[in-house]
C-alpha cells in the first residue's frame, strides 16, 4: 500500500500557480532570431530566414539521407524500449498495478497535485476578470470532502476525444486579456480506446478524475465507458488491427449509431479490426467493402462500456501495423502535421509541441512521456544532457551530430531534427510564434502558431541567448547497445 504513490509521482505540466508565473513558457511562445544578422543574400521564403519552398516537402529532407529506409529499431527493439520506459520513467502510470481499493489520502494527493487553486488573476474569453465566486464554484466542484476512506477502483475506455482539465469545468481561463489561445485549465487530451482508471467524481456528477498511462486529470464523464479490467485491458488485443498513420482519420457518418459517427482518431491510435465480419452484412446501414470494419468503445446510457462495430474508410491514412521506425518515415509522419494550428494542451482538436512529437513516435508504437518536462529527462531514452557550464563547443558539436528524429529540448519546448540545408540544422516543431533579425538588423516577429519548419541556429530564447545556449537535453530513440 505504501508503494501506491510512486505510480503517479511526477507531474508533467507545472501546477497552475507555477504555470501562471511562467506564463506561456511551456511550448507556448518559442522565439527565434538571428545574431548577428544574416547576410542580405540569405534566402527568405514566407518571411522565414533561410527557408526555401522546397524545404516544406518531406522529399527534400529524405533525398539527403544515405540510407533513409534503414530500420532504427525493429518491433522487438521497440517493445524492449517501451518496457524500459514503463520500468524506469516515473511519469508513466501502471494502471494494472493499482489495488482494488484506493486510500482516501492517495486519491486526494493525485487531485491536489493538479487541481491547485489559482493565485493569479485570470480572464475569461471576453477578457473579463474571473471573479472569486466563480473560481470558488470551480474549486468546490472538485469535492475532496466526498472521497471515501477506500475508493473502489474503476476502469474504463475513452469513447471520444476528450480534454483533460486541471479542474472539473469547461470554463476557459487566460493569463492576460486578449490572449485566448492558452487556456490555463487545459492540460492534455485522451483519445478513443485509451484506458483509464477512474479515481473520483465531481460534485455535479459531470466530471471524473482519471489516470491514463501518461497523465492524470479531469475529463467529462460522458466520454468514458466503465467496464471490467478484462474488458478494458483486453481491448485491441485481437491479431487484426489498423493504426492511424495520418495526422487524423475519421470514421464514416452513420445516423444509425451516432456514437461512432464522424469520430476523429489521432495519429498512432490502434483499433481492432473485425476481420471475420460477414461480407454481406451491413455495418450501421452501410455495406463494408470500401471500409475496414473496426471495433470501437462506446458508453451506454448507464455509463457502462460496450464495444460496437464501425466503419473506417479505406481512403483514410491507416496501416495494418505500426510503421517501421526509419528516418524516412519519421520525416514523412512529421510533415503530415505541417501547418496544423498549435493547440496548447491539445486544444482545438490539435496538439502542442510535446504532443506533436509523441504522436509522431506513436505511429511506430513508441511510448513517450506526455510533456517536455518528463520527455527531456526520461531515463529510458538515449539522453545527452547540458547544464549552464557547458560551453559553445560542446553544444555546437551536439548540434552537428544530430540525426533525423532526435528531439531537442529547451525549457518548455521540444523540436525534432530533420536535416541540414543552407549551412544550418533544421527542425520541425509545433510552436505558437517566433522572432528573428532580418538583414538590416530589425527584429521581425511572426505568429507561426502551428507546425512549422525553421532553422535551429538562428533561434533566440532572448536578445542575448540562443536556443542552443538554452538547450537542456537531446533525446534519441535508438538501440540500447549504442549507449
UniProtKB/TrEMBL annotation:
Q: Where is the NlpC/P60 domain?
A: 324-478
- Which positions are tagged coiled coil? none
Q: Name one Pfam family in it.
A: NLPC_P60
**Presence of the UniProt keyword Hydrolase in the record:** yes
In its UniProt entry, what is this protein called? Answer: NlpC-P60 family protein
State which residue ranges cross the membrane: none
Annotated signal sequence is: 1-33
Give one GO term, molecular function aspect.
cysteine-type peptidase activity
GO biological process, any: proteolysis
What keywords were assigned to this record? Hydrolase, Protease, Signal, Thiol protease
Gene3D superfamilies, per the entry: endopeptidase domain like (from Nostoc punctiforme) (3.90.1720.10)
Presence of the UniProt keyword Hydrolase in the record:
yes
Q: Which family does it belong to?
A: Belongs to the peptidase C40 family.
* InterPro entries tied to this protein: NLP_P60_dom (IPR000064), P60_peptidase_YkfC (IPR027017), Papain-like_cys_pep_sf (IPR038765), SH3b1_dom (IPR039439)
Amino acid at each position: 500500500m505504501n508503494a501506491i504513490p510512486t505510480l503517479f509521482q511526477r507531474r508533467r505540466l507545472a501546477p497552475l500557480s507555477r504555470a501562471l508565473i511562467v506564463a506561456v513558457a511551456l511550448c507556448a511562445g518559442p522565439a527565434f532570431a538571428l545574431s548577428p544578422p544574416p547576410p542580405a543574400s540569405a534566402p527568405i521564403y514566407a518571411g522565414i530566414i533561410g527557408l526555401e519552398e522546397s524545404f516544406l516537402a518531406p522529399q527534400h529532407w529524405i533525398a539527403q539521407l544515405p540510407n533513409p529506409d534503414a530500420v532504427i529499431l525493429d518491433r522487438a527493439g521497440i517493445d524492449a524500449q517501451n518496457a524500459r520506459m514503463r520500468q524506469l520513467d516515473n511519469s508513466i502510470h501502471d494502471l494494472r498495478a493499482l489495488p482494488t481499493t484506493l486510500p482516501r489520502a492517495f486519491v486526494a494527493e493525485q487531485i491536489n497535485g493538479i487541481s491547485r487553486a489559482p493565485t493569479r488573476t485570470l480572464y475569461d474569453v471576453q477578457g473579463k476578470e474571473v471573479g472569486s465566486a466563480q473560481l470558488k464554484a470551480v474549486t468546490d466542484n472538485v469535492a475532496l470532502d466526498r472521497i471515501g476512506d477506500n475508493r473502489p477502483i474503476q476502469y474504463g475506455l475513452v469513447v471520444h476525444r476528450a480534454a483533460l482539465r486541471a479542474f472539473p469545468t469547461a470554463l476557459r481561463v487566460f493569463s492576460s486579456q486578449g490572449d485566448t489561445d492558452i487556456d490555463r485549465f487545459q492540460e492534455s487530451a485522451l483519445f478513443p480506446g485509451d484506458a483509464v482508471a477512474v479515481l473520483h467524481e465531481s460534485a455535479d456528477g459531470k466530471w471524473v478524475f482519471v489516470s491514463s498511462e501518461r497523465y492524470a486529470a479531469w475529463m467529462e464523464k460522458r466520454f468514458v465507458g466503465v467496464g471490467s479490467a478484462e474488458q478494458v485491458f483486453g481491448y485491441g488485443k485481437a491479431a487484426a488491427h489498423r493504426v492511424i498513420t495520418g495526422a487524423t482519420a475519421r470514421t464514416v457518418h452513420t445516423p444509425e449509431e451516432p456514437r461512432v459517427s464522424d469520430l476523429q482518431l489521432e495519429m498512432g491510435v490502434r483499433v481492432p479490426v473485425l476481420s471475420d465480419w460477414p461480407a454481406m452484412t451491413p455495418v450501421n446501414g452501410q455495406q463494408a467493402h470500401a471500409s475496414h470494419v473496426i471495433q470501437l468503445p462506446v458508453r451506454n446510457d448507464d455509463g457502462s462500456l460496450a464495444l460496437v462495430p464501425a466503419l473506417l474508410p479505406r481512403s483514410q491514412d491507416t496501416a495494418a501495423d505500426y510503421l517501421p521506425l526509419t528516418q524516412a518515415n519519421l520525416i514523412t509522419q512529421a510533415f503530415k502535421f505541417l501547418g496544423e494550428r498549435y493547440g496548447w494542451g491539445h486544444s482545438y482538436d490539435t496538439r502542442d509541441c510535446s504532443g506533436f512529437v509523441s504522436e509522431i513516435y506513436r505511429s511506430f508504437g513508441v511510448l513517450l512521456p506526455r510533456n517536455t518536462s518528463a520527455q527531456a529527462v526520461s531515463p529510458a531514452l538515449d539522453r545527452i544532457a547540458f547544464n549552464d557550464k557547458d560551453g559553445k563547443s560542446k553544444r555546437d558539436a551536439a548540434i552537428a551530430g544530430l540525426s533525423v528524429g532526435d528531439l531537442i529540448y529547451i525549457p518548455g519546448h521540444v523540436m525534432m531534427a530533420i536535416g541540414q540545408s543552407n549551412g544550418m540544422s533544421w527542425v520541425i516543431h509545433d510552436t505558437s510564434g517566433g522572432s528573428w533579425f532580418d538583414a538590416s538588423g530589425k527584429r521581425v516577429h511572426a505568429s507561426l502558431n502551428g507546425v512549422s519548419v525553421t532553422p535551429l541556429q538562428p533561434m533566440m530564447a532572448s536578445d542575448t541567448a540562443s536556443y542552443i545556449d538554452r538547450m537542456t537535453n537531446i533525446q534519441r530513440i535508438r538501440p540500447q547497445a549504442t549507449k
